[in-house]
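tool_call: predict_structure(chain=1)
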Amino acid sequence: MKTVSWALLPIVSLHGLKAPALEEVMVDGVRECLALEELLVSSPVKDLQVFDVRQVPLPQAVWDAAAGIAQVNWGGEPKANHWLMEAALGPAARGPRDARALHTQTTRPAKRIRVAALEAVTVTPEDATADVVRAVLPAPSEEIAGLLQRMGVTDPGVFWAGLFSVRWPCLPEAGVRIACEDSATVVRGPREAVEDAVALLAWWCSSAEVLASVVDVLVSAGLAGEVFAGGGPAVVPVSRLVTGSSVASIERLEERTYVLTMPMQPVPATPVLESRGLEHAGHTWDRILELGFPAEVRRVELDGEANVFMAYGTRPALKRVQAVLDRLTQDEEELLACLDRIGVAGLSLDPEP
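tool_result:
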């Protein structure tokens, strides 16, 4: 079959797809890359171009699936690719250097994080013959401890073990075990695997924004129950616990460019959209803002996907968009009035191809 080039926007729509051999796959501006690993396994790909994929639910699966691809580009700005730091810190970094090799923009800070993380733990041997060790981690920051509590995490050991089982299952398979002992997080297992786990924990605990992005993408993928022992976070999206009352976060990408992100978790106004035959999706909010609030979005670049709404621009411009989203998602009457004003008939229900 003749090879073809595809640009995948959004990846989530490809779940279950059996595609032909692909010359090039381009992933551009997608935060929840929920089925990329399945596509890479089912379809031969020669060139994988990933541009600023902020977070993926199964980083090990994506990394392993990309093995054997002749050319891989993981994108540029580290702040826009949180999940790649895990690849640079954990077991993926110890693999063979091939086309998946990460840029120094990611590997250099990863080395610093790993060194600092290993210096901060207390490591003692448990079985010298098998090089099995016990590492006791320092207490998390007040910010992270508070976020875990507000998420409803009662046993951090179970929570961290759940994250590893979903995101980097090779570590528990290698014998890594995590538990809380006397209020301290303890990691046991083969030394090399324990060091990988310690480095990943340090990254997840580096900021509330990083940890929230990890949990939110797992919620979007329907995997949160495996991390929260069959339940789920007490508040979704978890990023709201970090950003305050806003449904959308604003973070800096470059000197004068910021990104606004609103994950597609249920909001009070979701039933209003459904009652009008609309989907609570990024591309729906994209059109609502374009048609209903042209002045507010005039100076920003909108990027609506199925499972996330994003916009790029200056911080003041994005703050105006954030205020509109907060009102529309929380106030059913205001959303109804907006939909009546712009007319549902003028609202495209499908994302751009």
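agent: Residues 245-344 form a domain with the Ribosomal Protein S8; Chain: A, domain 1 fold (CATH 3.30.1370). Proceeding to next step.
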